[in-house]
Amino acid sequence: MVEVDDVANLEFNWGKKRGVGGKRKEVQFYESFTYDGVDYNLYDSVYMVKEGEPEPYIGKLIKIWESGDKSKKVKVQWFFQPSEISRWLDDVSVLENEIFLATGEGVGLANVNPLEAIAGKCNVVCTSKDSRNHQPSEEELKLADYVFYRTFDVGSCTILDKMDDKVGGTEVRFVFNKKESEAACAVPERIPDGKDEKECAVACNAVEFNTLSTTVGQPESLLGEEVTASKAGTVKDELEMATDTKVKAEKRPQPANFHSDSEEKPSKKAKKDDVIKSSVDKSRKKLVERGSDVKTMPTAADVPAENTKSGNNVPIRQAKDKPSKQGKVDCPRKEKNINNIEKGPSNKEKLGNKTKGLSGGRPDVDNSKWFRQSPFEDRVEIAQKDGTILMLHNLDPEYVSGEVEDIIWHALKEHCSAKMVQRTKISTPHSGQAIVIFKTRDGTERAMTKLNEGCLMLPNGRPLVCSTPSTFPGKQSTFYGHLVIDNKTLGQREKKGAVSTSHCSQPNTIEYDMAMEWCLLQARSDSWWKRLYKKQGLELRRLKATFKSK
Amino acid sequence: MNMRTMACGMTVVTLHEMVHHETMENEMPRVQRRKQVLLALVPLFSFIAMELSDEEQYAAFKDKVKRTVYFDNLTPQATDAVMKTALDQFGNVLSVQFIPNYIGPSKMPAAALVEMETEKQAMKIIEETEDFPFMISGMPRPVRAFPAEIEMYEDRPRKPGRTIQCQWLEEKDPDFAVAQQIKDLVKYQATEASFMLKQQLAEEERLHNKHGETLKANAKKLDLIEKVLTDGSARKLGTCYNIRLQEN
Asked: How distant is the Cα of A545 from the closest Cα of chain B, in angstroms?
């Protein structure tokens, strides 16, 4: 665990400014910042560490500011894990990685926390079928750490399926996924410092919420108009107004403690601790511990050192103050962007100009298709000798072999037969691989040079990568884990349990103990892979985010 | 339109019969096989038959995925027949398909897709193997079962409606450098993964050897006990220490 001192040393930069607030304008609001090498934007979902909690909390950044005393604060609207609200779930079925966004009014909706409590970005994808929600692609869903489509009302303690125009005070479009066009410029251009924070609140408040199709620029133009209409009142008043329009129809104004937030109220642990214990069921540990205990045993310590980099979403630092998930509900405000998924800019527009759609299909000169071909394994072996084989990486894992052949034909004008490498439980989810056998050695070399020196872009910012495969494994040779008992006594004993070729082991044998050790190893390697791929996914996303074009 | 569809359909049937006479190795039911042939003909009669059969086929395929169980940690000794016998107790096994290992080391355990008759049977297998270590063709390493995923299939149909666009980036394109970086990263990550796999296999080998030792030690112990009991030294010692040993 990193100590407090180290926290201070972590790289930190403010991003775009939003406006100022507070009585003496000493509070500076921001819409983005960089912390420990990660860019955060308003409405990003983040992990928050709390000491003593085995799992980090997940929340949505709904306000970011630096107060007069230079302390950095964020306000987060919470997501609930099913285990936290299990008391109210009853027989509601929950998806494996589903979480619930807090809504309504009351304790547990949102809190102000020190910015340093952020432990990393969390990829939360909204799967709501709502027409205003930009539907996530399957790839996005696979990359998601969590999904959500329902909300949990902290006031009435109920699960809600529908989302109104505001969710816990946050405009619903910031709750939904960003559209791809918005992804690139996540945060709309703001009028610089001169304008006040209040204006935005009022503008948003006055604007009839338009569905997601509102372009990013729109709120800004509206802002100009509405500002004039709203000269009256202080920041406080307007914020109260903003607060009024809550998800629930009751227009009960709430004391806007906005000022106190930004000026002197750092999150007080004392407060939250007693409140939440009563309101939120803290059965985090009661997670699905199915099967043998052994399977749930892997811990951080089991993971090889090379994986414990901070790229993982596993919280590795402890902040000075821990986030409080309870306590005072601050006055919600609305902002204007959605940022759920950290995404690279989409290449669509650009591709539109000079790309080739592959739907046309390639001329099928390969008549041999009408006849049975020798098994692919044999062909691989021959091709390896002839040097007519290549491995492709970074394909969309969803592609099928035929589509890979199409790509090669359209991009390289070479005929080939391709085979997507079938996924197993240890394949990377980020890069689909394919084995491609070309007709000639020359063709293979041409393809290799072109792909290495040039750059063939596939959709979703995937440049095609090729490599010469190392020798193919051939037939499976050894298998670890099956033992033959050559001892008579023991053999007889064990055989009583093992009647046929397959069986379930019973818990009172040596065999069972050994099986448990295998389960443990399997679970451990699972967690290694999970961490590795999580780290790799993060690296890729970070790099993709640096694409200049959209 | 109708006429054309019909005409197209007829051609398909004749061709289907032609192909049918050739031996085809897959075990798909007849209807599906016919669809496959139809798909192969799609370039010839592109716009008519395509959409319908594609969608249909994809839906049928998705159903198949749902009732299929993915197994790994399998020994090379596990064959079609072995898998079928092992899983008979949970329901009717429709097909077994092993996932070929093209890129991993040859020590990798095998993996297979087992299609059951119903989704329920498939779920049952997954639950059962989660609760108890289930062993096929040897002990003590248990197999593992998971729901199958679309990408695990070799013969998966194209996803209907997907068009792929690709484009060569020019060297002066501002994104060229980024793309090259991504390419390097992808390669690096592939190396990372293969390193990880090696580590995993090394761990497995270690556990295998350790278990070998344990088993030997146990066998020795049992041998010793038996010897002591049979040659009378146990009784001798019993009288020596004044302990009565019960015969059993």
From this structure: 10
Q: Which of B84, B87, B123, B167 to mutate to test the interface with A (most CBs of A within 10 A)?
A: B167
More confident: A465 or B9: A465
User: Beta A146-153 vs A124-126: how paired, if at all?
Assistant: parallel
Cβ atoms of A27 and A65 within 8 Å: the answer is: yes
CA distances from B69 to A97, A130, A295, B118 (A): 21, 33, 20, 11
User: Backbone phi, then psi, for B166, in 5-degree steps?
Assistant: -135, 165
Distance between CA atoms of residues A223 and A197, nearest Å: 11
* Residue A131 touches chain B, beta carbons under 8 Å: no
Residue with tokens 């390097």: B184
**Please, are residues A399 and A353 in contact by the beta-carbon 8 Å criterion?**
no
Distance CA B141, CA B72 (A): 11
Measured between beta carbons, the chain A residues lying within 8 angstroms of B43 are 361, 364
Query: What is the distance in angstroms between the Cα of A435 and the nearest Cα belonging to chain B?
Result: 8
Question: How far apart are the C-alpha atoms of B212 and B204, rounded to whole Å?
Answer: 12
pLDDT tens column, A489-511? 545 554 444 444 567 667 777 88
- Say if strands A98-103 and A146-153 run parallel, antiparallel, or are unpaired: parallel
b/e per residue, A464-485, with b = 16+ CB within 10 A? bbbbebeebbeebeebbbbbeb
A82 contact B CB<8A: no
Q: Which of A66-75, A425-434, B28-37, B225-234 has the lowest mean pLDDT?
A: B28-37
Q: What is the mean pLDDT of residues A289-304?
A: 37
Rounded CA separation B166/A459 (Å): 7
**Burial, A371: exposed, middle or buried (Cβ in 10 Å; 0-12, 13-18, 19+)?**
exposed
What's the rounded Cα separation, in Å, for the pair A490 and A423? 40
Q: What percent of chain A has pLDDT over 70?
A: 56
A398-418 average pLDDT score: 88
| More confident position, B48 or A342 | B48
If DSSP codes are grouped into helix, strand and coil, which group holds residue B107?
A: coil
**Dihedrals φ, ψ of A178, to 5°?**
-70, 150
Q: What is the DSSP letter of A2?
A: B
Measure Cα distances from A211 to A53, A179, A244, A462, B125 in Å: 38, 12, 21, 31, 45
Phi-psi region of B161 (alpha: psi -120 to 50; beta: other; left: phi over 0): left
Distance CA B149, CA A138 (A): 13
Per-residue model confidence as pLDDT tens digits over A252-292 = 333 333 333 333 333 333 333 333 333 333 333 333 333 33
Give the A window 442-461 contacts with B, CB below 8 Å: 454-459, 461
| Tokens 């290694």, residue located | A528
pLDDT computed for residue B44 by the predictor:
42
More confident residue, B10 or A126: A126
Asked if the C-beta of B99 comes within 8 angstroms of chain A's C-beta atoms, the answer is yes
Question: Could you identify the residue written with the tokens 């902290």?
Answer: A154
Q: Which residue of A has its CA nearest to B86?
A: A502
For chain B, say whether A397 makes contact (Cβ under 8 Å): yes
User: Alpha-carbon dihedral of residues A318, A324, A325, A328, nearest 10 degrees?
Assistant: -160
| CB B87, CB B103: distance < 8 Å | no
For residue A502, list chain B residues with Cβ-Cβ distance below 8 A. 82, 85-87, 134-137
CA pair distance B60, B54, nearest whole angstrom: 10
Which A residues in the span 154-193 are in contact with B, Cβ-Cβ below 8 Å?
none
| In contact, A302 and A527? CB cutoff 8 Å | yes
Mutation target for B interface from A293, A514, A543, A546: give the one with most B CBs within 10 A. Answer: A514
* DSSP secondary structure, A480-493, as one string: TTB-----HHHHHH
Please give the backbone phi and psi of residue A83, each rounded to the nearest 5 degrees, phi first: -65, -25
Q: How far apart are CA A154 and CA A85, in angstroms?
A: 10
